[in-house]
């Protein structure tokens, strides 16, 4: 069993978001995403991964294509394959667990 205490693992930087890998397997990756005031993480334009974000602490937004959704602690967001996606921190720190499918191929 792997146990991760996200409060102890969270790290923040003025230089930008700090993505910390927790688990990287053959089919999925689990990342601890640590952002602070207005920092943003964007998936590449051709990203075809199925993704789930769970907000651990703080508040911010999740962008899904052209829609923006306000999120806070305990919120879980599912983003289907092929969705353009991004996370942006609000005023303080924003800690999110991201789980994404690996090996997804973009189909045009």
Summed over residues and divided by their number, the pLDDT gives a mean of 92
Strand content: over 45%
Based on CA atoms alone, the radius of gyration comes out at 13 Å
The rounded distance between the terminal residues' Cα atoms is: 39 Å
Order of helices and strands: HEEEEEEEEE
- Write out the strand line-up for the largest beta sheet, numbering strands in chain order: 1-2-9-4-7
* Tally of alpha and pi helices: 1
User: What is the approximate shape?
Assistant: globular
Structural class: mainly beta
The strand count comes to 9
- How helix-rich are the residues, as a percent range? under 10%
Biggest sheet layout: 5 strands, antiparallel
Q: Which regions contain 5 or more consecutive residues with pLDDT less than 50? A: none
Description:
It is a single chain. 4% of the residues lie in helices and 48% in strands. It is built from one helix and nine strands, in the order αβββββββββ. A five-stranded antiparallel beta sheet has the order 1-2-9-4-7, with no helix packed on it. A four-stranded antiparallel beta sheet has the order 3-8-5-6, with no helix packed on it.
